[in-house]
Amino acid sequence: MITEIDLREVLARSVGAPLSDLVTRSTGAKVRSSIEAELSGRPAGAGVVLDFSSVRVLDCSCADEVVAKLVLGRGVAPGAGQWFVIRGLGEGQAEEIDHVLRRRRLAMVAEERDGHARLLGEVEPSAEAAWRVVGELGNAGAEEVATVLRLALAEARQALQAAADAGVVRQADDRFLPLTAA
Q1: CATH number of 125-178
Q2: What distance in Å separates the CA atoms of residue 54 and residue 52, rounded to the nearest whole number?
Q3: What's the CA gap between 136 and 178, in Å, rounded?
């Protein structure tokens, strides 16, 4: 089950005015609180798409409050076990989110307007390589990743686990799946 959240709608609800600029830390905290309330009670493993398509401006403090803190809390209530994908980012917004994620040593998958996925933030190089293989194949196990990347099986398992721990792939038994908004 995937929940899609239009950030502009959440912003309007949170501040009581139809705005399209996500700026200031206090605004970001209100938006994040609203999103957390919306996500409470969702099943573990559920996907969340944060849609920035209607957001005009995103500053660093708001990106930190909304995106980074949601990612930090993904393994604890209220968003326990949820995975996040960002959609509809402009390049300036992507830079702001990338910056705050890197500063906190976090990562997320962003779906670009053309449908291609990219990573924002920071992951280990081996985890990024495993993420790319999973995305190219549609899903993968350690054996496929080891073959494609020419790694020992144990190294491939570690790379996949690092990608899952970073929240850029999800694990289903011994397979790893890409995070997509579809």
Answers
A1: 1.10.10.10
A2: 6
A3: 9
* Per-residue confidence (pLDDT) for residue 73, from 0 to 100: 78
Peptide bond into 125 cis (omega under 30): no
| Single-letter amino acid code for the residue at 45 | G
CATH class of 2-121: alpha beta
Residue 162 dihedral angles phi and psi, to the nearest 5°: -65, -40
Kindly list the domain boundaries of the chain, sorted by start residue.
Answer: 2-121, 125-178
- Cβ partners under 8 Å of residue 111, min gap 6: 49, 85, 86, 87, 117, 180, 181
pLDDT tens-digit profile of 57-105? 999 999 999 999 988 876 544 334 678 999 998 888 999 999 999 999 9
Distance CA 43, CA 58 (A): 29
Query: What is the phi/psi pair of residue 165, to 5°?
Result: -65, -35
Q: What are the strands, taking DSSP E only, across the chain? A: 2-6, 21-22, 47-51, 57-58, 83-87, 107-111, 117-121, 169-172, 175-178
pLDDT in tens, 11-39: 888 888 777 788 899 999 999 999 998 88
CA torsion 146-115-9-97 (nearest 10°) is 50
